[in-house]
Every structure is written in C-alpha cells, then in structure tokens.
Amino acid sequence: MPAGLGFGISLVGDKDLIRKLDRLGKKGYRRTVAKAASKAMTPVAKLAKRLAPVGTGPTRGLLKKSIGKKSKWYRGTRVVIIGPRTTFKRVIVTRKGIRRVNPVNYAHLVELGHRAVTGGKVERLDGRSVKGPKTGRVVGHVAGQPFLRPALFQNKENIKRILHRELRAGLLREAKKK
I need a surface site. Which of 41, 68, 128, 173 has the fewest CB within 10 A? Predict the structure, then answer.
C-alpha cells in the first residue's frame, strides 16, 4: 500500500482510559490493544471485500477472495493490515497453459490504475532506469477501481467507536484478572 493511505488513531481527551491502559503492564496492554485493533478493523475488511471488483476470465473473483486482515506489532505500535493475503496463491489452467496467480501482485494496479503498454517495456514515469530495451509503447490508461481506500474512509468513525468500546471492555477484563 502506498505511503499515506493509512491513518493512525490517538486517544486524546479520555485521560481516564489512557491512565488505565498505562497501568495494565506490558502483557495486559498488548493483549487489550491487539484485540481492540483487530475488532475495530473488521468492518473495513468486510467492506473492502464487498467493494473489490470481480474481474473477468480465469482470475475472476480471486482478488475479492484474497482480501484478509492481519494484525501485528511493529516497533511498539499495533498495526492492522488489510489487503490481499500473500499466502493466497492459485494455479490457473488456461488454453495457453498453467499460470500461477497471486492477487498481491496486481491489487495495487486495480486500486490505483495503470498505464496500458504494448510491445515491451517503456520509460518509467519516476525517471528511474528500466532494464532492457524500451521497445514498448503506451496505448492508454486503465482507470483505478478503488476498493481499499473507500472501505477505510467510509468506516473511519465506526473504527473509532469500536476501538473505544473494545478498549474499555478490555480494561474491565484485565482488571478482573488482577
């Protein structure tokens, strides 16, 4: 996913909740935040799956099927990744033979659009060099069919509401354990 498409959530104003999170200890804090973040992003993953274009041909519906959610810690911050799963690889049999397809390799092109090129490689737009001869020719542009960004932005308020609710519930659960 290109930089800048995600967003962070900071707890501001609810000093009581922040103070209680600080008192949980590392293990309790990580458990509470992990569960809350994952639950808060579930509606985004579901909507992205619904909005994903189905396409045509032998790869029909693979992008939609491959969309999933992964939650992990990254440099002390809980990160929830939504998009095509890297483990979702399929073998497609066509008239031309067997082809391995992984939606991770083309999801960004569907989301953002791309140039249509025929006859080989062309000069890159960012000025970086391209290996091999540049014999191709740009014949048009394929418009993007956004599905991840709309899913995220349509659920922004919902994410905050669920996150707040789940953090409070997690705090109560952790408090009962102690």
Answer: 128
Q: Is residue 6 in a domain?
A: no
* 127 alpha-carbon distance from chain centroid: 28
Question: Domain check: are 95 and 65 in the same one?
Answer: yes
Range of the domain at 55: 15-112+147-177
pTM: 0.79
Number of domain units in the chain: 2
Whether the CB-CB separation of 74 and 110 falls below 8 Å is answered with no
**pLDDT 10s digit of each residue in the chain, 178 long?**
344 455 566 655 567 766 776 777 778 888 888 999 999 999 999 999 999 999 888 888 999 999 999 999 888 888 999 999 999 988 988 888 998 999 999 999 999 999 898 988 888 888 787 788 888 888 999 999 999 999 999 999 999 999 989 988 888 887 777 6
Q: Is the dihedral of CA 105, 110, 111, 116 positive or negative?
A: positive
In a domain, 124, yes or no: yes
84 and 163 fall within a common domain: yes
